[in-house]
Amino acid sequence: MKALQGFMEKHFIPVATRISANKWIQSISRGTMSLMGIIIVGAIFSLLNSIGIPAYQTFLKGTGLANFLSFVPAVTINAIALYMVFLIAYQAAHMFGKPELGVNVGVIALVSFLTLVPLQIKTPKGALQAITSMNVDYIGSRGAFTAIITAMIVTTVYLWIVKKNWVIHMPDGVPSQVSKSFTDIIPAFVILALFALIRWGFSATSYVSATDFIYKILQTPIENLTGSLPSFIILIILAQLLWFFGIHGSFTILPILMPIWIGYINSNMAAYHAGRPIPHMFNIEMYNMLAIGGAGGTLGFVIVMLLFAKSQQYKKMARLVILPGLFNINEPLIFGLPIILNPVLFIPFVFTPVLILLLGYALMVTGIVGVPIGLFLPASTPIVISGIMQGSWTYAVWQVVAVLISCLTYYPFFKILDKTALEDETNAALLKEAD
After folding, report:
1. Residue 104: alpha-carbon gap to chain centroid
2. What is the CA radius of gyration of the chain?
3. Domains of the chain: which residue ranges?
4. Which of 6, 118, 122, 333 is such that its CA lies 20 to 30 A from the CA of 197?
5. What local confidence, expressed as pLDDT, does residue 128 receive?
6. Calculated CA dihedral for residues 27, 32, 37, 40, nearest 10 degrees
7. Is 300 exposed, middle or buried (0-12, 13-18, 19+ CB in 10 A)?
8. Cα(401)–Cα(280) distance, rounded to whole angstroms?
9. Helical ranges in 275-345 per DSSP H
10. Coil/strand/helix, residue 392
11. What secondary structure letter does DSSP report for 282?
């Protein structure tokens, strides 16, 4: 354990700390997390439209509710990249010390992103004029990485121009809102000219658009790399090791994976709606499945502590952490028990999520348990409720089974802790009586 701790402190933790503290990583993380509300609302409407009961579907189609329920997903989940580019640029302006320019940067990033979207010009038979339309695939999950890159470029160029003071200054007395609008003119012109050139350059290639290039060269390979069982296991172990040594593992891993998981939403929802298998199994809910009760899958640990603790120390601790644990909050347990740097709990804390992953994967591959859709639900959503919202009652049942597995893995290690604590309490009581 000392050798592992020394290796982690020397080679691994400094790198993880730099990653989690990186301003761009934090901007992407905060920007994508801000999307949770519209994703949840869009998903609820989509789920209501996708319930696979024949009589229910007949009712929806007969009453026209099927079309009504499809409107909200079309402008939320199916247009997710539009909101990503604005929110990431907005958060980046805050992270780089220019919060007053957040809206300005966000709007220009949005316009720059739309500049890259291919337009289709068609003249329907009998029409008096041509119709220009936008391919909505480019503003949905397909454009997620383009949104991130666009937000980064726009924020960098905009803040650089402002730093150089290459902006139009209005006289004193002009309202600040009017003055700010003139501040945008030079940065907006330079940035949009740049993105127009990028669009024109890619239109002359076989990729046709920058979005297609980024999707094929960057987004798809990364999705394939992180979408396998071995890579997912490695990511989980890395996150758990960071947690064990006192670094917020989720803050290090999740910002890297969130854009990828957002890219899964459209295709997973489309497959669910059509009654087909979920194409992207290793999504955000698979990660949440391993963190039932919090990192390390500690809800089972808390239940074991509540039911079997004999020492006063752990009886009191169990009463304190059971309610947060039900909502997947376990920082009081990790830092208060503590779990971090506790050699007795190293094995169950790091490897319980891996065990749950392997068993869950086997059950999903064999069709016994439904694959979760991968909706972005609040991390505090309790089990069963989150399972049903992920599209499968069998997955909700599996969440309960996962908690029981957690109980079994943590039980023998907790008994060691409890026995030691009970002996210490007994000895302390004897010494007090002797005095």
Report:
1. 26
2. 26
3. 1-24+227-435, 76-226
4. 122
5. 65
6. -170
7. buried
8. 23
9. 284-289, 299-308, 312-326, 331-336
10. coil
11. S
Taking the CA atoms of 327, 333, 336 and 340 in sequence, report the sign of the dihedral they define: negative
Q: Print burial letters for 340-374: b (CB count within 10 Å at least 16), e (below 16).
A: eeeeebbebbbbbbbbbbeebbebbeeeebbbbbb
Helix (H) or strand (E) holding 120: strand 119-122
Determine if the pTM surpasses 0.90. Answer: no
Element holding 132 (H helix, E strand): strand 131-134
Residue 237: both structure tokens together? 């172990």
Is 90 exceeded by the pLDDT of residue 132?
A: no
For residue 339, give every residue at least 6 positions away whose Cβ sits within 8 Å of its Cβ, in sequence order, or none. 243, 244, 296, 298, 333, 345, 349
Tell me, what amino acid is at 391? G
Res 434 pLDDT > 80: no
What's the rounded Cα separation, in Å, for the pair 43 and 388? 12
pLDDT of residue 178: 64
CB-based contacts of 279, cutoff 8 Å, min separation 6: 264, 267, 268, 271
In degrees and rounded to multiples of 5, residue 53 shows phi and psi of: -105, 120
- 151, 232 in Cβ contact below 8 A? no
pLDDT in tens, 327-336: 998 888 888 8
The torsion angles phi and psi of 121, rounded to 5 degrees, stand at -115, 115
Output the CA angle 30-31-35, nearest 5 degrees. Answer: 110
Residue labelled with tokens 């890579």: 231
Contact 151, 92 (CB under 8 A): yes
How does residue 316 score in pLDDT terms, banded at 50, 70 and 90?
A: very high
